[in-house]
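Any chance you could type out a protein's amino acid sequence plus the matching backbone structure tokens because I've never seen that pairing?

——
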Amino acid sequence: MSEQVKRTRSATEERPIRVAVITVSDRAYQGIYKDESGPKVAAAFPKDLYEVVITKIVPDEIKAIANEIINCVDNERVDVVVTTGGAGCSARDVTPDATASVLHREVIGFSEVIRLANRDKNPNLILSRGVSGIRNQSVIINLPGNPENALLAIESVLPAIPHCIKTVRQQRPSKRASSTTSGSTLHGQKSGTHLSSKTKTR
């Protein structure tokens, strides 16, 4: 086991970091093409520190994305939710909007690093509208949809995730953060409310 893994394992108190990977894509959801980004992102998490417990594909719809994030955090109690896809500038790229509606606090550094750390390899990464932050005691990070860009993005922020998890695990959830009905209003409903929408498991 590497020294870095030993340090990060100590930082997270030995318990594996539970991860959910959500692919956001109309065409992958409809089965028009095979999802490549989700598996590539899931494989990037070192198995001796992380456990990927959920992989899902959802369409490019705000309700579907918000629902799945809420389910992963509030019901499945994962430590990290990463989304891949829907973070660009087109009209159907609504992942950042859905994510922002269910966050309790922003952690903008993750998204800043994703946009800037790899700009020499792919200048288009600065066009990502991805957001990142905390809901309850879970970290949520938006990644690009292109498989290679998604891999560059997750690799650029992996070193900071264990310390962030350690920090949120140590804090006592506030009454606001622990409520599953807290958050920003989404289409006239509280974002924590489970919105009716279908998701699909790979």
